[in-house]
Every structure is written in structure tokens, then in C-alpha cells.
Amino acid sequence: MSQLADFQNEIYLNGLADVLPGLPTDLTRLAGAAEAKLSATSFGYLAGAAGSEATARANREAFDRWRIVPRMLRDVAERDLSVTVLGTPMPAPVLLAPIGVQSILHPDGELATARAAAATGLTAILSTAASHTMEDVAEAGGDGPRWYQLYWPKDRELAASFLDRAKAAGYTALVVTVDTFTLAWRPRDLDRAYLPFLRGIGVANYFSDPVFQRAVGGPVTDENRQVALLHWIGQFGNPSLTWDDLAWLREQWDGPIALKGIQHADDARRAVDTGMDGVVVSNHGGRQVDGAVASLDALPAVVDAVGGQIGVLFDSGVRTGADVAKALALGADAVLLGRPYAFGLALDGEAGVRHVLRCVLAELELTLALSGHRTVSELSLDFLARA
Length: 387
Ligand SMILES: Cc1cc2nc3c(=O)[nH]c(=O)nc-3n(C[C@H](O)[C@H](O)[C@H](O)COP(=O)(O)O)c2cc1C
Ligand SMILES: CC(C)CC(=O)C(=O)O
Hints:
binds 2-OXO-4-methylpentanoic acid, TIM Barrel, globular, alpha/beta, 44% helix, two-stranded antiparallel ribbon, 12 strands, 17 helices, FMN binding, binds flavin mononucleotide
């Protein structure tokens, strides 16, 4: 029995109370459990999406339109789901998507997430909009692998400072999110006039930054907090960015860079042409362009366009191990898990995140094995049929 699916035996042999923190093992039930625990504002921010939330629903429907076609009698006794993605070895092709403002879900926020990721050997991608500083999160994650997600601010000096800090704190790859230079129209938050940042959540990396502090007249205290928040609003996103700016970024960061939020084959080709190391096919969980194409439907054309020249990662709509397997079969090198681990965080902090990760990994391995696959590289379109 291999390590990833050992979780299943542990549950049966050691019993629920010893192994499970009282959380569902059917990960599609996490949202309901988290809703019962969180405030309406926090749950709305986490679960909500843009506009009518049609794209968020489409992300799920796209997974349902693909069905797995299991193959038999192929000796799957020895299994190994490990991969190396953008230079980082991973026990399975699953990463934790960058999710900001995690302290609205649990006081330990990104610290708990980093600990859970380290415990499972998975790579957590830390958001620029984290509620703890990147240095504190790096310390919490210890030796665990970590990547940094950049929200590229208007001031290049501030962007460079973020990158220097990330390098110094041991983040090895950079994920640049290009689909969120401003927040979309998000009715659940608009209806409650709720934005975590305006309550000082998600600004830790800005307020702790020497370049930011210089701009607001020194360290952020009660006295200049309002000025600092206004400066944050002005700095957060940069709608003027173009492909030409990536050359500057390339000079600032010598490790791998992936662009997150790519949905069109031509954009993927431009990522190759501008010297990027990867793309993340993503529509931000339906939180940006309502009516946008389902992320899974955008994946095959990007995989084709890139032709193996750079890495293709995927997110938006992944809820189960079977979903991960489907995205891999459609050509993703790895998959970012988003809301499910955040629901776990809300439900039980570090233990909740660890629970979700272990469930996904075990379910992924069992899905692949029971459908006749020992490794991820054996997966192909042959694995899937249209529903
Ligand atoms: C509450 C919340 C906060 C997020 N914050 C960030 C962020 O700071 N940076 C980023 O690149 N993506 C962010 N995302 C998007 C995720 O990285 C990911 O693309 C998305 O959650 C995938 O959709 P899914 O959760 O439906 O699978 C956030 C998503 C949620 C739900
Ligand atoms: C805009 C951010 C700072 C957080 C985010 O990416 C999100 O809420 O989707």
C-alpha cells in the first residue's frame, strides 16, 4: 500500500476520532460545513464569485461532463504519483492555490496552511494579499517547499522589494496573477459592503514592507493607518501592465515564473515567447469575469498551444481527487487546489487543511490505481469519455 492512500487504512483501522477531525471525507460537503461555522461575510467572501456566479458553476459543470473510463488488469501494485514541477519535487501533482486574507477564516490563517502543506509535502503558494507576512509564513512552513504569488503593484520599487523578500525567505518559484488587477463585481460582498482589506486584513505584506512604509511616512501605526490603507488601494493593482513588462520581471527573479489566469491559447503562446516557465490556466474560481469560459474547457487549447515548451498548471473548480485526475488527463502538469483547503482551514485550522489535503491525495491515488494507472505520466485522453 502506498503512502498517499495509507490515509484510507488509517481511518478504517484507527477509527474516526483518532484520525479525522470530524470533517467530511466527501470533499463536496466541505462548503456546507464551513458555511455553518463562518460569519456570513467571511463565508460570502470565500464561497462567492463574480456577477451571477455563472462561471463558478460552469467550472464545476465542465468537470461533470468528463467521465473516467477505468482500465483493468494492468498491475498497479507499485504506484508513484511524484512529479517535479517548475523545479520543485512533489509527492503528487497538487499544490495549494494562493488564497489571500486567510485570517478571515481562522486566526492562524496562512501559518496553519503552511504547516499543513509542509506536513503533507505539498507546495503552498503564498498570496501577496496574505494576512501574515511572507517571512512568518516561511518560518511556519519550515523546510516545506513554497512558492510566492505576486500581485504586481503599481510601484516597481515595491514589486522589487516583494520579490527580494520572497527570495530571501526561500520561496523558489513565482506565480504572477494577471487576471486580478482590480476586484470584479462580486455581489455577495457588495450586498454586505464587505472588503477584508479595508478592515486591515490582507495587507500584512504591504504594511511590513520598507518601500511601502517609506511612502506612508514610516511604520504603519494607528496614526497613519488610514493613509496606509488609501495608499494600498492606490497601489494594489496595475491595469496598465502589458506583455512588455514581463522582461523587467524576468530580470528581477531568476527562478521559475508562471503566469496565473491564462485562458486563451494565444496568451499561452505569448507566455512562451516572453520567456515564462509556466502558465496557470485559471479563471480565479469564477471570481473575476462572470460569463467566462469554464477553466477546464480552456485547458486543452492551452496545452496544445504550449506544446510542452513550458509547464501548464490548472485551477478553478477542483473539488476531489477524481477532478485532479481529469485535469491531469487533459494535459495539466499539476493542479492547484483552492476553496476546498480554505473550507478545511475554516473548519479546523491546520488539522482541517491537513485533512483536506490527505483526502485529496488518497482519493487521487485510489482513482488512478483503480482505473489502471501507476504514474501520472501514464494518463492520457484515453482515460476520459464525454458524459
Ligand atoms: C477567498 C479567495 C481568495 C483568493 N485570493 C487569491 C490571491 O490572493 N491570489 C491569487 O492569485 N488567487 C487568489 N484566489 C484564487 C485562487 O488562487 C484560485 O484561482 C481559485 O480559488 C480556484 O478556484 P476554486 O477555488 O473554485 O477551485 C483566491 C480565491 C479565493 C476563493
Ligand atoms: C483580490 C485579492 C487581493 C484576493 C483575491 O484574489 C480574491 O479575493 O479573489
